[in-house]
Design brief:
The protein has one domain: START domain (Alpha-D-Glucose-1,6-Bisphosphate, Chain A, domain 4, 2-Layer Sandwich). The two termini are about 15 Å apart. Helices cover about 30% and strands about 45% of the residues. By secondary structure, it is α+β, with helices and mostly antiparallel strands. A hairpin with a 2-residue loop joins β4 and β5. Strands 1-2-3-4-5-6 form a 6-stranded antiparallel beta sheet.
Length: about 140
């Protein structure tokens, strides 16, 4: 539970340049399309994770203000769908974050079964850092 209303949480998450502020891994995110964030907005991301460097292309596929943001990431590891779901609850926001593989490349076919056990921990850490950022602003 985040002590901020859904509109504040949504606005923070919709600015993808904040991603490095709360992600478990070091990264930079750069917007590559014009205009305000919405369906079709694109970004690139460069990150270090699990001892490897990644360059990814991100595209927002669902964008419902104060409700959900869904984006797909395509890169060396494959293609993944990430989602943020927001629900107003007791004057704050219940935020859910999920990731699902759509296509795995190379070694990630072997690593993903291990990731099934690690991913919930990583997502939980992301949610804690998002909460901390929003509640200290």
């Amino acid at each position: 539970m985040i002590g901020a209303i859904p509109a504040e949480v949504f606005d923070y998450l919709a600015d993808f340049t904040h991603h490095p502020d709360w992600a478990a891994h070091r990264s930079t995110v750069t917007k590559t399309s014009h205009g305000p964030a919405g369906v079709g907005t694109t970004f690139t991301s460069d990150a270090r994770m699990t001892g490897s460097s990644f360059h990814d292309d991100l595209t927002i596929t669902e964008f419902v203000p104060n409700d959900r943001i869904v984006f797909e990431v395509t890169g060396d590891a494959g293609r993944f769908r990430h989602s943020f779901l927001l629900r107003e609850e007791r004057g704050g926001t219940r935020l859910t974050k999920a990731v699902e593989p759509l296509r795995l490349n190379g070694i990630w076919n072997i690593r993903w079964p291990i990731g099934v056990f690690v991913i919930p921990h990583v997502l939980g850490g992301d949610l804690k850092r998002i909460k901390a950022r929003l509640e200290t602003q």
